[in-house]
Fold:
Amino acid sequence: MVAVSFNSVWKDYGDGAIAVKDLNMEINDGEFVSLLGPSGCGKSTSLRMLAGLEHISSGEIVFGDQTVNDLPPKDRDIAMVFENYALYPHKSIFDNIANPLKQAKVAKHEIERRVNEAAKLLEIDHLLNRRPQELSGGQKQRTAIGRAIVRQPQVFLFDEPIAHLDAKLRARMRSELKHLQYELGVTTIYVTHDQLEALTMADRIAVMNDGVLQQFGTPQEIYENPVNSWVATFVGEPQMSLMEMELTGLNGDTALAFGADMISLDKISAVRLNAAGKKDLLVGVRPDKASVSLQETPGSIQGEVYSRQLLGADVLVEVEIGGSRVRAKADTAFAGNVGAICYLTFASQDLYFFDAEDGKVIPQ
Amino acid sequence: MTISTKSDGHPALSDQDWGFATISRVPANLNPKPSRMFYVYLAAPAVLLLAAITIYPFFWLIYMSFHKVGFGAASDIFVGVKNFSRLFNDTKYIEGWGLLLKYSAICLFIQIVVGVTLAVVLNNSRYEKVLVTLFLMPMMVSPVVAGLLFYYLYNGTFGWYHWIFQSLGFLDQTSILGSTNTALFGIILVDVWQWTPLITLITLAGLKRVPQDQLEANMVDGAGSVSNFFHVSLPNIYPFLLIAILLRFMDNFRFIDGILALTGGGPGNSTRLLPVYLFDVSFQFFKLGRGAAIALTLLVVTIILGMILVKVLEDPARKKALAGDSDV
Amino acid sequence: MASREIISYDKGVLVKALKWGSPIFLAFYLIWSLLPLFIMLMASMKDLLDAFAVPKPGDWAGVAIFFDFSPTFTHYVALFTENNFGTYLFNSLVASIGSAMIAVTLGSMCAYSLSRSEFRGKKDLLFWIISTRMAPIVAVIVPLYAIFRSVDLVGTLPGLILAFTTFNLPFAIWMLKGFFDGVPYAIEEAAQVDGQNRFQAFLTILPLVAPGIGAFVILCILFAWNDFLFATIIGSGGAKTLPAATKELVQPQNIDWGKIMAAGVVTTAPMIPLGLLVRRYLVAGLTMGAVKE
Structure:
């Protein structure tokens, strides 16, 4: 168990392809950190640099108090679970899990004990004599995890381990993996492109885009206080809607101009926006904070229903207003169909404000 | 209403009457099955041609093997299985098999060791593509021309390869093809020269298919590149090598062009591999009956090898490995 | 599959040895592969005296003698003027190309049928087809000779083309079936919906396997061109090809090596560009489709 840190780490592949730019991050001992972002954002590359499967172009990676830049993977005391499991097809499940112990020349009886223990924990002990080809996706994935936990390493690395499982199994594995990490207490870094996985499993999330760390914080912080509009729209399902608005003064009161409509601001937000002094804003609202109705109410904005999707317990309505589409959650009783005129309401305290120029959040 | 207790228990699958409308009359089949005859017509010319030139010879061989074939149409004497039984006492026949096996084993051993090493080195080389193209030149040469070329190179008086062997102290004045001890190695060398690139190509194809993440996982588990090669790469290229071995082995039955050009089977009988002996019996001694018997034994073994080859090719797990399916 | 190479950390002795040893190994192998061909080329241009000039054993510096000669093309000229090599070249061309064409035409139709239809015994049929390709030529050549002689095909080009077809046709069927298996049947179904009959649908998908067919034709030409046994036994007389003619230049008395080497060059030279052309399909072609590059 060890604290891991990235100190100004860069990864440059040459001819202009820079995968990771100046990554600085301190991960605490025993923490479960998720690296979250879309494909190509540099999360896998960062993980691979941690593992020693990619050379670091500049900067340092430190485990505890030791810089590990030049250490090969085997000397870093890590274990990794790969996206496609990377099981050895010609070896039995037992031998697959035992492989790291064999490489470390652990005694035979000890190998047996540890492998059986791990297999039992992961409920694959009845498969130890089979070959990987005979296993299902979920079983292969648990074998890969078994190979990782049998080592008792300092750091666990997961590279999108449940990406290829079906949705139901994924949901189950999320809780199993979280529980496992809690039991073992090992520092874990988990790469995923699925924001739900990150939100549900991680102690802290590092959101990355285009090689740059956007925000590093607890799931709650990321959800409630996104540092820019990109993070705000990336995290949260259904996605937050962004609207282009202008800050104006109306009869001495600060308000937002949204196309032809005016949205009044609460005192705190008004002070905040005035202090920042930015005129063109991107205003975000999460669907659960936006209400839509077929009746006009004071302060509501008129729009047209673009689509209506049943989510099970609620309905997701996309409303077309002045060139933007705003997503709102409604009761299943909501009767409007495509093309119907409807009215959108939200409270200004629930809004997120970003500078339209660079997407950065307007400071509180 | 009772719910039937079918194993899946699903109500819709039970034989309850759920009130569905049923059709009591089966409608006329308006869409007849597409005629298979189209495919038969399409395949017929090829199959007929092939049958004509393969089935008749096969029966001819069987007929001949039970006869002592004389010259002219009417002088074939039926001898029963004498042609076959004589083979057991025929030293050249038995030695022929021994030589064939010895030759194949040595050739394949050298080809695999050199070929795989070459593939590994090439795989890590910048000039791989160019080099591979150059290395395949020997395979383009007609085996008989290769044989003649090496016959020239081995010549005790003016052969450059002989000169190299002499200078290195391997040989005296006698050409490598001149002594019964060394002639076999002489022809082995030619086979190695021509066909090692094939093993290299096959191994390269296999190496490129080794899933990268298996190698990386092995590294994380604590292995260095040597262990990676032996424990991950080799097992993954094993099916490729198996096919290469089977194919080359079978090719040794077929191609005697080079041996005919190099030694004709001599000196003595040191290079008289079984197919070469068959050639002698049929075309030099004209003992066609005996030749047919030998040919049949050769064919039987070829067919058995062929069945093994097809089994290897068609094995689903192998097929997957050969196609490079990386998600194990 | 990532195209990145595996990271390497080893600074061990083994890796250093490999780093230095590899270029040497490759250089040696390159020389080993090309030296015989190079010597063949040189020898074909040496007159009789120069051809036999070899240094004394152990005299490594004497290797220079190899390059000390005045090149002459008399052997090449002689081949074509005295030894009829023009005819043999023609025979090789016609027999190889002819056999490849027949194999491809009949073979593609048969391969298509086998690919698209299912019937009992299909596996056995396929096995029979491929076994004809694997059969040792030595074993079947006597009966084949007998058959061909009775229909007066010995020593004729059509006879030789037919003989070559014994191995090219099964090869065609096996390989092309593999190609057709790779084309989804949906395309022919779409063509039929569009109003084509089944034969037209077949023609429609031919362009999809065209590169494979092209490479395969060249491979057939390669195999037929390089064949010796059929050419000697069935072709000799009126349809001798280059390999057979080259071997025949080796007379018991007075072997003219210059001519033989020149004949070797003439026989080999056209195959080199062909080999380069089908480089990508070479592995598949030589392993009966088992290994695809």
User: Anything to note?
Assistant: Chain A touches chain C at residues 52-55, 70, 72 (CB under 8 Å).
